[in-house]
Amino acid sequence: MKLVKGVARVLGGGIVLLGIVGSGAQAAGDEAGAALTPEASWALSNAEAAVALAQSNGVLWTTAAAALAQAQEAAKKQDSVAVIAHAATASEQASLGMGQLAYPLMGRY
Amino acid sequence: MKKLIWFLSGLGCLVAAGGAQASPEDDRRSVVQAVQEKYPNIKVEDYVYGALAFSPDAKAQYDAVMTFPPYEAEIDKGARMWNTPFKSGKRYADCFPRAGKDVAGNYPMFDNAAKKVVTFEMAINRCRTDNGEAPYKHSDMNTMGLLTAYARTLSDGMKMNIKVEGKDALAAYEAGKRLFHQRRGQLNFSCAGCHINYVGSVLRTEYLSMAPGQATHWPAFRGGDYTLFTLQRRYAACHQMVRLVPLEIGGEEYNNLEYYHSYLSNGLPLKASVFRK
C-alpha cells in the first residue's frame, strides 16, 4: 500500500513536473521565438512606411511616432500580437496626419 | 433677385478676401483687424508684448525682470562671440550693412538667386562659411542662440520690414501661410487657431498671444531658469503642444513659416532677448 502511494506520488509528481517542463519549454519557445508572424512583419513595415511619409510631409503626430516605437520594441520581443496592435495605431494616426493636409485652412487671413 | 445677386457678390468679396488672391498686405491687415475686433482696447503697438497685453500682473513682472535682466551674462557671451574675429581676420560686423545695426528686421528675406527664404541665422552662417568657419546648427542654443541673443539687440527699435516681391517669394510666403493656418498634430489645431481665433483665451495657465507682434522679440529667455528660445525653437514647442513631431529648426518649412509669420509683424518695433514665461 505504501508502495502504491509512493508510486502514485512519484507518478503524480512526474506529471506535474512534465507539465512544468512542458509549459517552460513553450515559454522559452515564445521568447527565443520563431520570427514574427507574416501578418506582424507586414503590419510593421506598413507602419514604418506610413510614419516615414507623414514625417516627410511634416504631419507626423507624436502619438503615431510613439506607437511605432512600441511596435518596434514588441518586434524585438517577437510579440506578434503587440506588434500588430501598435503598428495599427501608428498607421492609422500617420494617415490621419496626412489627411490634415486636405483640411480647409483655419483662422482669418 | 437683386437682393440675391447683392448677397452673392458680397459673399464673393468675402471669399476673395480670404482666398489665395489676397496680397500679403491684405493678409496682415485682416489678421490685425481680427485681433482688434476682439480686443479693441489693446493698442496695436502693444502686440509686441504678446500674452502680457492681457495681464497687467504679468506685464509688471516682465517690466521688473527687464530692468536688470538676470540673463544679461548670456547676452554678454553672445557679444563676445560677435566681436571675436574669424581666422580670416574679419568679423560678423563686416558681413552686414551698418556693421549689423538695424538689419534683423529685414529678415527673413527672399533670395531670388537661390530661390529660398534666408533667415537672419542663415545670413550669420553664410558670414561664417564665407570666412572659413564651420556653420552653426540653428537648433544649437549655446552657439547660434547665444550669438543672436546679442546680434539681434543691434536691431532693437528697428521696425519689422519684411518684403514679399516676385512670384517665387510669394510662393514661399504662401507655403508659410498654409503651415500657419493648417491644422496639425493629434490635437488638430493650427497656429492660427490658437493665436488668431482663440487669441486672449487662457490655455492651461497662459493667455494666448496674438500672431502680429510675435516675431519681434527673439530670442526670448523663458521661465524660472531663463532658458533661451529662438523663434523657431518656439515653433517647435508649440508643435509639440499639439502633439506634432516638430519640424526641423532651420529647415525650409520653418523658414517659410517664419517668413509669413514675420510679415504679420511688419511695422512693429523689434526688441531682442526679452523675458517670457
Account of the protein in words:
By secondary structure, chain A is mostly helical. Chain A folds into 2 domains: 1-33; 36-103. Chain A is 78% helix and 0% strand. Chain A has helices at residues 2-32, 38-56, 62-76, 80-99. The relative contact order of chain A is 0.13. The model of chain A is unreliable at 1-33 (pLDDT under 50). Chain B is mainly alpha-helical and 277 residues long. Chain B has a single domain (1-277), classed as Cytochrome Bc1 Complex, Chain D, domain 2. Chain B contains 10 helices and 7 strands. In chain B, the strands form 3 sheets. Chain B has a 3-stranded mixed β-sheet with strand order 6-5-7. In chain B, strands 1-2 form a two-stranded antiparallel ribbon. In chain B, a hairpin with a 4-residue loop joins β5 (220-222) and β6 (227-229). The N and C termini of chain B lie far apart (56 Å). Mean pLDDT of chain B is 93; it is low at 1-19. The chains are: A mainly alpha (109), B mainly alpha (277).
In short:
Chain A is 78% helix and 0% strand. Chain A is mainly alpha-helical. The longest helix of chain A is centred in the first third of the chain and has 31 residues.
